[in-house]
Specification:
29 strands, 50% helix, elongated, 7-stranded mixed sheet
Length: 801
């Protein structure tokens, strides 16, 4: 029986609908929905996620908490799969994802059904630890602390183990008395086997206690097989002599295997520290302290003590501590660390500033709007971290293999021993033992487990560095297949607000016309006023201002009667456009809003206002086409204006005059034509289309609703980020395929070699020591290859190669 909350119920009818929906789920016994407590109680063996889906499917919701925990004790893909299955199987957990590379578990659960203690005990029950970060901690901090502790511990074990193994090899070659030689080897290698290799043996024991096996199991069984065989030869050599069997010791094999695998683990942990450099760099953007004004006094306080509404000060050259609004002062803000845009942005009183950005010039007095985990920087870090925990579909095959990998390898090793002992050449026991150990040691589930998450970790981190936030590994995988990008026009390809693009007439007349528009709140009027000011004009104060909606304005400026408005309105006043008519028509054909300016009854000129194309829009379209990606512009504008804009951007296909509710339908039709479609938008009305597309890409300067519906967010709002996102996706997927190919090829080719399959034809056998060396390098190879993504560079949006 399980009881869980249901949100959105308002009456008995709602409760009845929920009850009927839950009863229809397969495996459900009895259902009771309590409207007063807003809870549903279900008996039977139905999966919790299926119950939640049934509730969501009829318009209600189940409140779940999504948390990231640090998970300790993971050593290979089998461990990650086991921990993930344990968490997913707990009643009250709707989804669990364990990331081996980041050592994190992303868990979505219902707090009323499952507690933190239950989560911890469930993970402990399969041999691992689960830690929730404190309020002022990031999971990445805890994971990094654990990595550094393990790194330091391994370093000492590795150094001591290497010294003992080298000493053992010297004994093997310099001490000629067989008895002394063997006893000295025993004394040197026993600490290596029992203490240096203890982390492996402990991991194997923990897995065995809970009915499982992992990489540690393979190492422990393999090395103890060689060690115990050698010990038996040392203590009872007659047992072998009496049977006519060779009695050799393999202490050096056991010790060397442990040291080589420790070396591989040591190098892997060191390389893993570099995989999260990008996200740690983001976390380090916020300064540790902030200067606030409390009780009229300036104080420097730890950042975690900042409160919403507090006044804080930022001097030139200092980082802005939290999200806020400028109260006093002006400054040039370097936002490149968040948006990827190299040029600083001028900010004035009333404008927002973002925590973690750098104030280059000017002293600022600001009011804190968002602090702690609510800041834009914290939310970006959280989004990136969650993306790193969501596996792409390509990782599922590796997970399925990892789940059965270790038992399969132990089975292959056992068969290898039996076959060599029964049919191999003499000394058959020696051949059987060494090949048995080689198979156990060379098999590497770690490479399989690390192949995908390390690439995702580095890829999403690189995305964040370039101002591209990727919601999950699935979006990263799908983006590389995109062959058609649909851009919403307004606010995506364009700035999203009208600007004065043309003035055909005398400059002094434009000053009078802009002055007449000063008191109008219409966006077109503001565009005219701003356009005049950008041309260096000083505007006066109009009198007798009158606005006629849909027609124009009338005002007196410096004793002159000034009219600004549409051609029909001007004609209705008996004023003939005359020679200006040709310019008026030409501007209209370009899709611009064209108006006439009249001074003292005479047409003084023609004004045109239009939404301005963003600086890098045309380049983005051009580069997408070079990459083999088609581009479509989607807009609610009339077709003439849309085609004029498309002409500026060299977009060949335009879907115009589309109502907001029809955008998702346009995406559906494009998908049905066989295209993998990405939708790029910024507004609330784009959200359904973003959700419908194979990949939804939101412009970061747009609405929260659009960003919530999207798979990828471009922080800077630059459409050229679409090019970078697709290139990054392609680079990451290429890297993942390389890793998976190496992981699969390594195991497919080398396990048969270790088993001696090629011996009858080519006389080739693999020493357990070389098997250990190959195994130790396999994981390092995968992690190092993933780190190559750190060299990803976006194309210069200025158009330079």
């Amino acid at each position: 029986m399980v009881t869980f909350p249901v949100g959105g119920m308002s009456c008995a009818s709602c409760a009845g609908r929920v009850e009927r929906a839950l009863s229809a789920v397969g495996g459900v016994g009895k259902v009771a929905v309590n409207l007063a407590t807003a809870q549903a109680t279900v008996t039977g063996d139905a999966r919790l996620e299926a119950l939640f889906a049934a509730v969501r499917g009829i318009g209600f919701h189940v409140p779940v908490v999504s948390e990231t925990f640090v998970i300790g004790g993971l050593s290979c893909a089998s461990c990650a799969v086991k921990a993930e299955k344990a968490l997913s199987g707990l009643a009250g957990v709707s989804r669990a994802r364990v990331n081996l590379a980041a050592r994190e578990a992303l868990v979505e659960y219902v707090p009323d059904v499952v507690t933190l203690d239950q989560l911890e005990r469930t993970v402990a029950g399969v041999g691992f630890t689960l830690t929730r970060p404190r309020e002022d901690e990031q999971p990445l901090d805890l994971a990094e602390e654990e990595r550094l502790r393990e790194y330091a511990a391994l370093r000492w074990r590795l150094v001591l183990g290497a010294v003992l193994v080298v000493a053992d090899m010297l004994v093997m070659h310099l001490v000629h008395d067989v008895s002394w030689n063997r006893w000295l080897q025993f004394l040197l290698i026993t600490p290596v086997q029992l203490w240096i290799g203890w982390p492996f043996h402990r991991g194997a024991w923990m897995a065995a206690r809970h009915g499982g096996a992992n990489m540690h199991t393979l190492v422990t069984v393999g090395t103890f097989s060689a060690y115990l065989f050698s010990l038996l030869v040392l203590l009872a050599p007659g047992l072998f002599d009496a049977r006519g069997m060779a009695a050799e010791v393999y202490f050096e094999t056991a010790g060397t295997i442990i040291v080589l695998i420790l070396l591989g683990r040591f190098l892997e942990i060191r390389a893993k520290g570099k995989t999260s450099r990008a996200i740690r760099a983001l976390m380090g953007l916020a300064p540790p302290t902030a200067r606030v004004v409390r009780d009229g006094q300036e104080q420097e306080i730890p950042l975690r003590e900042m409160r919403v509404g507090e006044t804080f000060l930022v001097r030139p050259g200092e980082k802005i501590p939290v999200d806020g609004v400028i109260v006093r002062g002006r400054g040039a803000i370097d936002e490149s660390m968040l948006t990827g845009e190299p040029m600083p942005v001028e900010r004035a009183p009333g404008e927002e500033v973002t925590g973690g950005t750098l104030n280059q010039t000017g002293a600022l007095v600001c009011r804190a709007v968002k602090v702690g985990r609510d800041t834009a920087l914290a939310r970006i870090v959280e989004m990136v971290r969650r993306a790193q925990g969501v596996k792409p579909p390509i990782a599922r095959l590796a997970d399925e293999i990892a789940a059965v990998f270790v038992p399969a390898v132990m089975g292959i090793a056992t068969v290898t021993f039996v076959v060599w002992y029964a049919f191999g050449p003499q000394p058959s026991l020696t051949y059987a033992l060494l090949n048995f150990v080689s198979v156990l040691i060379i098999a590497c589930p770690c490479a399989l487990g690390l192949a995908t998450p390390t690439s995702i970790l580095v890829g999403t981190g690189q995305g964040a560095r370039h101002g591209i936030l990727i919601r999950g590994g699935d979006a990263l995988e799908t983006a590389h297949k995109i062959d058609l990008v649909v851009f919403d026009k307004t606010g995506t390809l364009t700035v999203g607000k009208p600007v004065l693009t043309d003035w055909v007439g005398d400059e002094s007349a434009l000053r009078w016309i802009a002055t007449a528009e000063r008191h109008s709140e219409h966006p077109v009027a503001q565009a005219i006023v701003n356009g005049a000011r950008e041309r260096g004009m000083i505007l006066g104060e109009p009198s007798g201002f009158t606005a006629l909606p849909g027609q124009g304005v009338r005002a007196t400026v410096e004793g002159r009667e000034v009219l600004v408005g549409t051609e029909p309105w001007i004609r209705s006043l008996g004023i003939d456009p005359g020679a200006c008519l040709e310019s008026l028509e030409a501007l209209r054909r370009q899709g611009k809003t064209a108006m006439l300016g009249v001074v003292d009854g005479t047409v003084a000129g023609v004004l045109a206002v239009a939404d301005r194309v963003k600086p890098h829009s045309a380049l983005a379209v051009s580069r997408l086409r070079e990459m083999g990606v088609e581009v479509v512009m989607l807009t609610g504008d009339n077709r003439t204006a849309a085609l004029a804009m498309a002409g500026q951007l060299a977009i060949r296909e335009v879907v115009a005059e589309v109502l907001p509710g029809e955008k998702a339908e346009v995406i559906r039709r494009l998908q049905e034509s066989g295209k993998r479609v990405a939708m790029v938008g910024d507004g609330i009305n784009d959200a359904p289309a973003l959700a419908r597309a194979d990949v939804g890409i939101a412009i970061g300067t747009g609405t929260d609703v659009a960003m919530e519906a999207a798979d990828i967010t471009l922080v800077s709002g630059d459409p050229h980020g679409v090019v970078t996102a697709i290139r990054l996706s392609r680079a990451t997927m290429r890297n993942i395929r390389q890793n998976l190919f190496w992981a699969f090829a390594y195991n497919v080719l080398l396990i048969p070699l270790a088993a001696g399959v090629w011996f009858p034809w080519f006389g080739i056998l693999l020493s357990p020591i070389f098997a250990a060396l190959a195994m130790s390098l396999s994981s390092v190879t995968v992690v190092t290859n993933a780190l190559r993504l750190g060299g990803f560079r976006s194309l210069d949006p200025t158009g330079m190669p």
